[in-house]
Fold this sequence. Notes:
The protein is α/β, with parallel strands linked by helices and 307 residues long. The protein is built from 8 helices and 12 strands.
Amino acid sequence: MASHSAPSVRLRLPPPPDGGGSLGRRTKSLVGTLAITASAPLLLGAADPPAWTRPQAPFPIAGPITYVGSEGIAAYLIKTSAGAILIDGTLAENAGMIERNIANAGVRPRDVKFILVTHAHFDHAAGVTALKRATGARVVAGARDVGALETGVPPGETSYGVIRFPPVHVERSVGDREKVTLGNVTLTARATPGHTPGCTTWTMQIPAKPRPLDVVFPCSVSVAGNRLIGNRAYPGIVADYRRSIAMLGTLHADIVLPSHPELADVIARGKRRKAGETNAFVEPMLLPKIVAKARTAFDADLAKQAR
């Protein structure tokens, strides 16, 4: 975790998780009652939801995909004929657990060849540095998030300040529709800026009958504390959000695997699959529902900030 030269006030005030909820309300309450100077460091600590660091045993999802994250923040392992791909590293505190989950899923950590980062926020990127060191994997991320990942400073302006994370070198930056191939698996990057400038959704197909299954790992399109009005560090944020929400609405997804698992009931579906429900993760109408909720929430946030 990156450290700061410290004034006397040291707080740990995380952003609301993608999709808001009780932490978002707590964060707003803290912001409303505490005067925090611009130079005060905001550190990882007590306010994170317990599920974010609660251990979760790995479980199979579909085809080559295995869940290896914590109970509250997702990381996905994709096995291929030439090694494995990891999507996201979650919190720094979770890196050891994820490494163990990878091994328990039958993959040697050194066989992880790529780590794909959905976006440059601490709850998804802070563990990447340690996991890169443990695996030797090449880090891949959206081009517009590379600067943030390599400095450990999240992009844009928010209502909750700056939460740094350990910087990590990015070997490859990607733009919209660029592909990452390892062995028999190809993932396609879809640029979904807004939540961060380089927020990247990943898509792939799983062989199945009567047709392949489309899998989407959506990058968040929640506002989650982003400043929509007068964001000097990210002046095009509103237009980016609108384009990204519209683009996600054009994708077909048989399986949706978000960075925050509760958005698609990933943990509960894993239990159903373990109990014998083979297609527990298949729900073609789930992504349209998520997109519709995101569009409504974005419009409400924009109107509120405009007032």
